[in-house]
Write a structure and sequence with these properties.
By secondary structure, the chain is mainly alpha-helical. The chain has 8 helices and 4 strands; from the N terminus they run αββαααβααααβ. The strands form 2 sheets. A two-stranded antiparallel ribbon has the order 1-2. The chain has a two-stranded antiparallel sheet with strand order 3-4. This is Succinate dehydrogenase. Keywords: Membrane, Transmembrane, Transmembrane helix.
C-alpha cells in the first residue's frame, strides 16, 4: 500500500513538490559534508601511517589510543595490548568503531542522514521515495538505539584525547613546548567535548530520571548546564567534524614531512 502523499485519500498531484524555494540546497550541502568525512576517515584509518609526530608528541585522534605492536615507537601511550595487525586491518579499528558508532547513532546525524542520504524525506512537503516505512524497529536501523552506550565509549575516548593533548605540550628535545599543532589539538578537544556533553543522551543520563531536582542539586546543576548546550548540539556536531579533519590532516602532514610545525615555545 502506498504511503505519504501517494496514500489513498490524498490529493493526486503530478508534481514532486510545489515548493518554489531551493529546498534541496540544505540536504545537498550536509550530504556532501557527511560524504567527504566518511571517505576521508575511511582512507585515513586504512593508511596505517602518518599519525604520530615524535618530536612534539602529536597523536591524531583517529589513531588514539594506539595499542598494538604495529604502532610506531612512542605512539603507544598506554602500552601495547595486542600483537601486530595484518596490513589489511587498520589498527585504529576500535577507535573508529566506537567514535563512528557514536556519531552514526547521534540524533542530529540521524536526522541529517535521513534527509541528505536516504531522502526520508529531504525536506518538508517533499515526498520520500520509499514505498514502506518501518521506523527504527528492524535491522539495521534498530541498532541506532545503542546510542547511549556509544556515548559511554565516547566519554572514555574523550578522556584519552585529553591525555594526548597534555602530552602535546612537548618541546623539541624534551621539556615544555607549544606549537601550532598543540593549539589545533586543543581547539579540537574543546569542540569534541562540547559536542559530546551537549548530547541528548548525556542530558537524559544526568537528569532524565530525576523526580525531584531539589534533592539532587549537583545533578540538577549539571543537567541545567547540558540543557544550555543542547540547542547547539547540531552546530557542535558539524564544527567538530571539521576540527577532527583539520587535526588529523595537520598531524599527517607533519608526520609525512610535508612541512614543519610552527613553534611558539620550544
Amino acid at each position: 500500500m502506498a504511503i505519504g502523499v501517494n496514500s489513498p485519500g490524498r490529493a493526486s498531484i503530478g508534481q514532486k513538490t510545489l515548493r518554489t524555494d531551493r529546498w534541496w540546497l540544505a540536504p545537498l550541502r550536509i550530504g556532501v559534508i557527511l560524504g567527504f568525512f566518511v571517505v576521508y576517515a575511511t582512507v585515513r584509518i586504512f593508511m596505517n601511517k602518518w599519525y604520530w609526530v615524535d618530536a612534539h608528541h602529536y597523536l591524531t585522534p583517529l589513531y588514539s589510543p594506539c595499542v598494538t605492536e604495529s604502532c610506531v615507537p612512542g605512539s603507544s601511550h598506554l602500552g601495547t595490548w595486542f600483537g601486530e595487525f595484518p596490513r589489511v586491518i587498520p589498527f585504529s579499528i576500535i577507535t573508529f568503531a566506537v567514535l563512528a558508532g557514536f556519531r552514526g547513532t547521534c540524533y542530529y546525524y540521524r536526522k541529517a542522514g535521513y534527509r541528505s542520504l536516504f531522502f526520508a524525506p529531504s525536506a518538508c512537503a517533499v515526498p520520500e521515495p520509499h514505498k514502506s516505512y518501518t521506523g527504527e524497529r528492524k535491522f539495521p536501523l534498530v541498532a541506532l538505539n545503542l546510542h547511549r552506550y556509544f556515548f559511554y565509549g565516547a566519554l572514555v575516548f574523550g578522556i584519552l584525547n585529553v591525555y594526548d593533548g597534555v602530552l602535546a605540550f612537548h618541546g623539541e628535545g624534551g621539556g615544555f613546548g607549544i606549537g601550532l599543532g598543540t593549539l589545533i589539538i586543543w581547539v579540537n578537544l574543546v569542540f569534541l567535548w562540547l559536542y559530546t556533553l551537549s548530547c541528548h543522551a548525556c542530558r537524559h543520563i544526568v537528569g532524565g530520571r530525576l523526580k525531584n531536582f531539589s534533592k539532587h542539586p549537583l545533578r540538577y546543576r549539571y543537567w541545567t548546564f547540558v540543557s544550555k548546550l543542547n540547542p547547539k548540539h547540531g552546530t557542535f556536531a558539524m564544527i567538530s567534524l571539521f576540527t577532527v579533519i583539520l587535526t588529523d590532516f595537520y598531524i599527517m602532514a607533519l608526520s609525512a614531512g610535508w612541512f614543519s610545525d610552527l613553534r611558539f615555545i620550544n
